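Predict the holo structure. Ligand: magnesium ion.
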Amino acid sequence: MGKGFFVTGTDTGIGKTTVSCALLRAFAAQGKKVAGMKPIVAGSENGQWVDVEQLLAASNVNVTRQQINPYAFDPPISPHLAARQLGTEIDLSVIHHAYQQLCAKADLVIVEGAGGFLVPINDRQNGADLAKTLNLPVILVVGMRLGCLNHALLTAQAIQAAGLTLAGWVANCVDPQMLALEQNIAALEQRLDCPLLGTLPFLGETDIAHSIGLLDTKILTSNHIVKPRMNPS
Ligand SMILES: Nc1ncnc2c1ncn2[C@@H]1O[C@H](COP(=O)(O)OP(=O)(O)OP(=O)(O)O)[C@@H](O)[C@H]1O
Ligand SMILES: [Mg+2]
């Protein structure tokens, strides 16, 4: 039986991996067996994919890189373009299979999307199809910076239009200079139809790794944790 959450965000580079790792560490501290998953990553650094390494480090079950990350591409471009450059295509059934392998080992799998929610993954499907295939409730990470209200509300609308549950959102303070931060957070609390799981302040690298206490995992109650669908669409 698989269970977990799909972590999406208002954009690329706004803290999806940071929040995914914080959630993995928080659930691990509660005694759960946890695995992170980054089904599709594009953009390598020195032959490594940072997201995969970070999610692997925050996992506490024995999983392979192939299970955590079935699709890895070198150029930092949209996954559908990166796959096309290699003459291949991302296949959701491959991802679903790897996800089920992780579910067999872990109590909880935290799946990080690529880029924003509607990023194309091939000529017919996008990030929403990936979340639907895994049938997971979604956590929305909002990178708190100018423009984020529009991005957050559009993303929430797309999640709900996909028929998925918005389990919660995280205010991630990626811009230490953001004006009217508290008012922006309040504006989203008023408009997003899900609980705020926590606010991550602007942190240094060391603090980020130890930010587990900042997110309220209790809100992510068991009624949000669902079985994966057996037949990917
Ligand atoms: N609260 C924060 N304070 C300071 N730096 C942060 C914070 N959250 C994230 N960062 C930094 O911002 C960068 C991007 O964060 P992260 O890798 O988590 O984003 P992402 O959404 O997963 O990106 P991608 O789209 O590439 O997967 C990282 O260097 C991370 O350390
Ligand atoms: Mg990431």
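The chain has a mean pLDDT of 92. The beta strands are 4-9, 34-37, 40-42, 71-73, 108-112, 138-143, 166-172, 196-200.
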